[in-house]
Amino acid sequence: MHWAPVGVLHLPLKEGGQGLKCLHAQVRVFCLQALQSLLYSAGSSTWSILAHAFLHCFQRLRYDRQLFYLCPRGFPRDLSRLLVFCQDLLRTWKLFSTTRSVAAAVGADLLAEPLLHNPQLRVQAAESRSVCQSLVLAEVTKVGDLLDYNRRDWLDPLTLARRMGLSRPRTPRRILQEVKAALTPAARAYLNRALREGAPRPPSIPGPPDLSIGPLPCRSQQTPHPFTAGRLHELQPVSFQIAPRKYLYTLTLHTLHAHTLVSRPDTKWRDLLPPLEGEQPQWASLYSTLVPRPVGDISWRLLHGAASTGVFLTRFTPIPDTCPFCNVRETLAHVYLECARLQPLFRFLTNILLRFWLHFSPHLFIYTLPIHGPTKSRDLLVNLLLALAKTAIYKTREGRLAKEASCNCRAVFRSSVYSRIRAEFL
Ligand SMILES: [Zn+2]
User: Fold this and answer.
1) How far, in Å, from the CA of 319 to the mean position of ligand 1?
2) In sequence order, which ranges of 99-242 are alpha helices (DSSP H)?
3) Which residues surround the ion ligand 1 when the cut-off is CB under 5 Å?
4) pLDDT tens-place string over residues 140-162
5) All structural domains of the chain with their residue ranges
6) Which end of the chain has fewer CB atoms < 10 Å from its terminal CB, N or C?
């Protein structure tokens, strides 16, 4: 590739990106923060009262907060009757894996526990589309709706069948059996006591749900690269109530750009120059107070393979795929490591680095030197020299293609180092 994909540009600098903020991810994070406020905020602002009212009326389900822990498979696809803002909230929610630890066992939360598409109850008999619609028409969508306070017992299957518009009580009987079997003994005891005492009664509003948010399981057909820049596999689910904004942004960014990040290695040099054990690209070392931004950009593009080469250009242009200096096939490794014209420059660098007790190698040249506290000044200086050397290679190649006179990369490197010293110290 001659360029880096958008997903990579949005990664932080230390992870191999350019640290650009992704507007799509920002909008989704805003939706998640609005959801945090909607689900957990103690105060009831005007917008949240309105949002709750719209969610409650959605598809006549009479769910509110419960919408956020329904099984996504059973969730209605047509959100058009909701406010656009609420549609955005639900669409954002479906991008992630969101789970609730356990179903409610006591209190108003148990009465408001959803019957439909509830992964904690798993009422199979209520999964079919027609049964769902019948239950919605009968206004029986929560556990509390199955209680008959006048009889002080669960709803009679025949009564439920009549309300659902069914001639036989077989399906209602199955629904009642499955719900009772799914409830914990404590929950069943609570409901029996509520029936005996006649309270509490629906309608009831559930309390804040205990939800966790994390990445969706990978469903991509592509095999993830072992050294991918994507971090979805590292991100553990966290409690949604206290999920910090930084986590939500990272999760959203990697979810939205998963397709480009997962199948892509962090650097193109994994195959060309396999890193030694424990070695990895030092993205954070590419830019520093010493290294000017355009110089750092060339090192960054080189690590991503986003640099011009004959082999790449010949696919789209009449430019030959050979090196303009030595007529060998011009690959990325040839331009920056193997071309014979680079040898004087590399010998020069070897001599300079020896004065810092460092051994010059292709690995050091490409992956750069990690910056450690005790040797920070030396590391910064060495990384500056390496970055200037890459820039000299890049500029002299461009100059040769433009048929300019000076194409000696060692001389260009020396003059750029001198000019830096003059600018900084003289
Ligand atoms: Zn060459």
Assistant:
1) 15
2) 107-111, 129-137, 157-164, 170-182, 185-197
3) 323, 325-326, 339
4) 998 889 999 888 899 999 999 99
5) 1-96+210-266, 102-207, 283-425
6) C
